[in-house]
Amino acid sequence: KIIIKEYKKGEIIIQEGVKSNYIYFIHKGIVRNFIHQNNKTLNFRSEGMIVTGYSTYNYHQGFKSKMNVECLEDCTFILISVDTIHYVVENFKYGDRLVRYLAEKHILELVELLTDIDCKSIIERYNDLNVKFQNIHQRVSQHIIASFLGTTPVHLSRLKTKHNNHKRISASK
User: What pTM was estimated for this model as a whole?
Assistant: First the structure.
């Protein structure tokens, strides 16, 4: 009941406003969730993480994605259909735990993201990215990282330079 599928860098795997029938588990690669209207990067997902389009439900049209998901490098996914998830929930003794686990994981990640946006500086969030997403600075372009951080690539470059100069001065004292 699973599908293993590869996508190329730049491919959109989930499109805003379109019904999404799968949950994607990232085996290899990194993606971004973004809104097309302003090209704002909302978050990143990489190996071992789950990707969805954060769908909304309309009785007549089914589930429609709220955002786009773009491969930022060549990716390999394990796809599981929403129908298969529903089958597991309804036919296995503890199937509902799967959905609850996925929902709790997403909620905790969103709370962390919102807290970081509110409580951390851009440079702190930039540094945290490399911890959460190994080598993201080598894997993702600076303009996409700047979009996620809510700044411009030029401003981000200035902040990094200022931060690195401050670290060198502190280390020499």
Answer: 0.83
